[in-house]
Amino acid sequence: MHPVIFENTDKYYADKKVLDNVSFSMEENKISVILGRSGSGKSTILKLINGLLKPDSGTVKVFGEKIIHSDIYELRKQIGYSVQGTSLFPHMNVYENITLLGRLNKWNKEKISDRLDILLKFVDLPEKFLKKYPAELSGGEQQRVGICRAMMLNPKIFLLDEAFGALDPTTKSEIHSELLRIQSIEPRTIVIVTHDLQEAFKLADRIIIIEKGVIRQTGVREEILNSEIEFVKYFIRSQIEFLK
Amino acid sequence: MKNILIILILIISSAANGQTIRVGAKHFNEGYILSEILSQLLENEGYRVERKFNLGGTLVCYQALINKEIDLYPEYTGTISEAILKLKSRQTYEELRNKLNEQELDISGEFGFNNTYALAVTDSTAEIKDLKNISDLKLHPELKLGLSHEFLNREDGWKNLSKVYDLPQKPAGLEHGLAYKALEDKQIELTDVYSTDGEIPKYNLKILEDDKNFFPVYSAVTFYNIGVESKIKEISGRLTGKISESEMQEMNEQVLYENKTFAEVAGNFLLKKDLIKKLNPEIKDQSIWQQILPKLFQHLKITSIALFFSVIIAVPLGILIYIYSYLSKPVLYVAGLLQTIPSIALLAFMIPLFGIGVVPAIAALFLYGLLPILRNTAAALFSVDPLLKEVASGIGLTNFQKLRYVEIPLSVPTVIAGIRTSAVICIGTATLAAFIGAGGLGEFIVTGLALNNTKLILMGAVPAALLAILTELFFEMTEKILVPKHLVKK
Fold first, then answer.
1. Alpha-carbon distance B317 to nearest alpha carbon in chain A (angstroms)
2. Residues from chain A contacting residue B388 (CB–CB below 8 Å)
3. Which one of A33, A164, B205, B466 is CB 3.0 to 4.6 Å from A204, fit for a cystine?
4. Between chains, do A91 and B484 touch, taking CB under 8 Å as contact?
5. What is the pLDDT of residues B252-295, one digit of tens each?
6. Mind telling me how many Å the CA of B412 is from chain A's nearest CA?
7. What is the pLDDT of residues B221-238, one digit of tens each?
């Protein structure tokens, strides 16, 4: 079963075509990484999955069915969403940010506190942070809280949009490891959007390379590394050279 | 149902209590004195008098009378015929009464004095130039005339006067309050006055005889609806022929230069004329705080009620125009338009709708208070970080939840700032509400302006300014309590 399927999907912003005849499917409980440069259309793909955007043509199927936008809220409960930057609600403390969705869905206190314990352990956040406000947290701490918030309802799909972009390399590496550890305990379908080749190679079960709204290649690590496709070769070479 | 019952009871009880008489006053020195004389005369007969002074000018008083918000007020025959009935020709007293009766209105007998426009010169100028009559001015084209702006433009002012008397002078316009000083300092030699002005004896002025009978007669009378109790008509009739021009002038002078209160001057006059046997013991001099506090309280009452309604209308409306953003332009436009109406005009517009007093004042202040709150509410909601809005939707909040848990809480500081602006505007504008009889600190200012009395103006202006500052501090504290530290923008 493929929880996310794109079939010949086009998307325009005004007159500009940002996705051009995109088709792919994502495997259940695997990590798919969408890799591309800024403006390549990779964030648009995430917003089509959780219904923030509607396709202009083609189909987006989630859990095997075409998205019904009038009933989008039920669907979104099963899709976690975490984005780059300070996307935490500044007027809520860490506890309120993380548990918001649980409280809105009328979970009882016990259920909320059980889930909270699990999440805090996942991302290695001590309980003393719960009373703090986002402005009092470092970038890495904020990102951890954002991940917890997105996973509150234990969603079947988890979307991460450049979620680790603002972190220093050490912190980023730590969170990568945590994510893989969580995935080994509580596996789910994860879609990560990034421009960072290293991150993609570290996390991905499967990589989708996108450029100017067109999917250039889909494959596992080795397939991408040994690609014969001009753009993919160029993209990999440029990032590796940069790392040297 | 319960509310209707309460209203019915109120109507019945107020109708049964016919013993309270509401006396109005025009807002100038003589207006207050005459109203106070009438009030004390009525009180002496056992009536309870509600003093609705500070109603403003002729038209506000007249509106209040025909709307039965006051029972009577002192007015002048010339004003009734020219400004209220707008009659072209001169009327006798009987003709005027007949015209008024046709409109269900009536006047008492004339008090005796005629407070008309007049031209005044200093005694010394009169002597040197040999001036007795207005006709004599024709021989002195060199005379320096300083006339009030109103007199320069009125039908019964300079325009027609100079034609009737064929006068050659070119008058300058100046503020009436400054004219007496200018005469004393010899910067001008002649000005227009009211013939009973208290300043006339004080500055040793001579009134020139209106030998061609140009000026209409402004004879003081009591003005009431024809249906008023006959006992009231009888009591106000007792003043007929009782006040001479010099007596009125003297009373005006006592208030202006001897620092006596209206009540004192009126009471002493009634005693002297044997119209009452003893002074009303309740009318005593009050300490400055006894005077200020009730007005301060009234001021707070008007502004806080108006602000309360502004908030409960403007905040939801602001949220509404955020949700239905196509409404935002027209709604903000209309609210902006309301703001451009000068406050005194907005207050005046309210009179035909709500009459005089507290209700129209609150209505006007409410309208004034809308825009800052409305604009800040909408602007705050529109400017919430778009990333946060998107994330809120993205993690599964419904539009309502997004509004309730993210957008509105993040807008609170800006909304409070809007309410703060409205509050300060309301406090300032409420001082003008005294013109339509709403009371409050503006009463001191309005009276002070009418009497050219700086102390009175300050008694209104200083507490109003302090109130505005306290309001600012109050909202600053509210902001500190309601807006958590981490939301304060540095």
1. 23
2. 87, 89-90
3. A33
4. yes
5. 888 888 878 888 899 999 999 988 888 776 665 567 787 888 88
6. 10
7. 999 999 899 999 999 999
